[in-house]
Amino acid sequence: MVLSGADRLRLADGSTHPTGFWAEEVVATLKVLRAAGAHVDLATPGGVRPTVDALSLDERGGVSEADAREFRAHLEEIADEPAAPLPLSGVRASAYDAIHLPGGHAPLADLAQDADLGRLLTEADAQGRIVAALCHGVAGLLSAHGPDGGFAFAGRALTSFTDEEERQGGLGDRTPYFLESRLRERGAVLRPGAAWSSTVVRDGNLITGQNPQSSTATAEAVLKAPAER
What we know:
The chain has about 230 residues and is α/β, with parallel strands linked by helices. The protein is globular and about 45 Å long.
């Protein structure tokens, strides 16, 4: 699991906005994968400790008090892991069955341009390993380039946090860029579901989930995929 190391995002108006990983996307994914017996390592650019987005633990972010308590409790249980993640530069695709990118707006700040992540994703894709991304984590795919310098996942079917969702419950026009539109511009084939629906799109070894509501279904798809490869 590759997490953003960013805690700030520069917005379209030049101001900065606190950010981080979205708690539900990390917690729900880890619960599903580990309940099935999967071993999951956490990695970040430079091995920095990732920051949880405060809004993902708050009703301001559409998170109920009960859910926020659950997410906090799980993050406290695994506190040693995000305290010392693997440096992304040292991660090799050959060591893993899958690479998973959860969201929160933070990936827009670093993972979308991270050369180490781009190398890792192109390695994983070339080897037929599962590449999974969720919500704004799909922005991390933009770091991957093919031999011609183009977007490595051009022509592939996927979903992401949609422009409609960004306007309804995201950063709106303050967002640095609308992820769905950017992916379309780069040549991806977007197949979004209804706003805030649990939507997962699989194209071969590429699995993408649309939003936090898709966290569990995306993780379940990752578990099923290696056996079907």
